[in-house]
Amino acid sequence: MKDELIIHGIHPVMEALDNPDKVEKVFVKDDFSGQALKDIIKKSRSLKIPCFVVPVQKIDRLANTKNHQGAIAQLSSIEFADLENLIPAIMEKGEDPKIIVLDGVTDVRNFGAIARTAEFLGFHALVIPARGSARINDDAMKTSAGALNKIPVCRASVLKNAVFYMKHSGIKIIGASEKAENISWQEDLTGPIALVMGSEDTGISNAILKLCDGLVKVPLLGQVKSLNVSVAAGMIAYEISKQHSK
User: Fold this and answer.
1) Are 59 and 72 contacting, i.e. CB atoms less than 8 angstroms apart?
2) Domains observed in the chain
3) How far apart are CA 67 and CA 95, in angstroms?
């Protein structure tokens, strides 16, 4: 939680939930009594914001004070965009959406580096899950070199639903996988497209793989068996950008 904005206290947390776009997580102490903290839990979950009931000692540590009234909220450094508004807006401009979906990328520096590359290459947005994704903290912002203040980031409560929405909006879903048969430049990557990058450890989840229209890989030419996810994303994103520029 270091380097992330933390607010504490019942009223400040409830006020943050009234404008929830920047709220990443909520923590409530487990030995609470009274209606106020119950209301925070109920409201957080109704907004599909992760809410954790934890020992008060953890609240003390995260808030760096004992004057927290049993509730804290972790805020993102950016405001999230709405995918269902963003896609039609891109298409109305006569542009083919170019999106990068991060399925379980948890390292903040990888996240920041991918955002930097995506913005540099003219991609329209990043899509991340609400749970199981890198936090947008100071390290992510610094690694992105300011890109996270420029490229829209859409946070999906259920990533599969967001990918399903894009697919049925006419966007081709292409996954990056070492098991792919085609090298990135052998695949048609023109038109509306969403590139899915999986987690650093396990790759793309099965639920998202089932929605992919195709898989691509970066060819292995040397002896090192794998690439950092941000490097692989950059190489495939460049190929997408190159094909779109023709």
Assistant:
1) yes
2) 5-75 (3.30.1330.30), 83-245 (3.40.1280.10)
3) 51
- Tally Cβ neighbours within 10 Å of residue 225: 7
CA 122, 212, 49: angle at the middle one, nearest 5?
A: 75
Q: Report the sign of the C-alpha dihedral through residues 2, 149, 80, 126, in that order.
A: negative
140-176: pLDDT as tens digits: 999 999 999 999 999 998 999 999 999 999 999 999 9
The dihedrals phi and psi of 156, each to the nearest 5 degrees, come to -105, 130
- Number of neighbouring beta carbons within 10 Å of residue 35: 9
How long is the chain? 246
Helices (H), the chain: 10-18, 35-46, 56-63, 83-92, 108-120, 138-143, 159-167, 206-209, 229-245
d(CA 173, CA 53): 36
DSSP category for residue 224: -
DSSP 23: E
**151 vs 31, 177, 214, CA distance in Å?**
41, 25, 25
Return the structure tokens found at 176.
């990056």
Render the burial of 91-103: b for 16+ CB within 10 Å, e for the rest.
eeeeeebbbbbbb
Burial (CB < 10 A; 0-12, 13-18, 19+), residue 241, is middle
Residue labelled with tokens 């609240």: 59
Three-class SS state of 38: helix
Q: Is the pTM of this model over 0.90?
A: no
Q: Which residues pair with 217 in a beta bridge?
A: 183
